[in-house]
Amino acid sequence: MSRRRRFEPNIKKNSTFTLNITSMTDMFTILLVFLLQSYSTSQVEMIPESGLRLPTSATTANPVEAVKISLSKEALKIDKDKIADVKDAEFLPQDLESTDANFIKPLFEKLDHMAKNSTEKEKWVKEGKILLQADKDLPYATLRKVMYTASMAGFPQLKLVTMVGE
């Protein structure tokens, strides 16, 4: 009986192995272009307050750096500092001006203090920019009080923060 011999390719011991990576390079280029097109970046990080349901919108504009105000069903906050309490979608009477029911005293005082003590790095304070996160179930009258007080404090550029909608 004859024995079968194992196949051994003719490989020269001194030759080099070449790898054709053209197809792999094309694949990675396509992946890179796809990821760059779908990657969205913003200068501002917006984290909604717990229990705050933002309204939805179809806008694709990225927010700019500004004073961050959040208005929920329980409280009005600047960044993480509680400014005023909210009960039944209304501000408490001690937080409102007695002669002007749309004027929120603690909000005005805090914004006025921020405007007077802002640094050069915080140019958005000098420009009067505000990003307002407001619960979608709050009535417009409550939002109007915040907008009115902010404009009186020298912050007329107010933008409402929304979630990219369904």
SSE inventory with pairings:
Elements: H1 22-38, E1 56-57, E2 67-71, E3 75-78, E4 81-87, E5 90-91, H2 105-116, H3 123-127, E6 129-134, H4 140-152, E7 157-160, E8 163-164
Parallel strand pairs: 1-8, 2-6, 6-7
Antiparallel strand pairs: 2-3, 3-4, 4-5
Helix pairs in contact: 2-4
For the record, give the distance between the C-alpha atoms at the N and C termini, rounded to a whole number: 76 Å
Judged by helices, strands and strand pairing, the structural class is alpha/beta
Order of helices and strands: HEEEEEHHEHEE
General shape = elongated
Largest sheet: 6 strands, mixed
**What is the strand arrangement across the widest sheet?**
5-4-3-2-6-7
Strand content is: 15-25%
Share of helix among residues?
25-40%
Low-confidence spans: none
Mean pLDDT reading: 82
Written overview of the protein:
With about 170 residues, the protein is of the alpha/beta class. The chain has a domain at about 55-165. Helices cover about 30% and strands about 20% of the residues. The chain contains four helices and eight strands; from the N terminus they run αβββββααβαββ. The chain has helices spanning about 20-40, 105-115, 125, 140-150; strands at about 55, 65-70, 75-80, 80-85, 90, 130-135, 155-160, 165. Helix 2 (about 105-115) runs parallel beside helix 4. The longest helix is centred in the N-terminal third of the chain and has 17 residues, at about 20-40. The model has no long low-confidence stretch (mean pLDDT about 80).
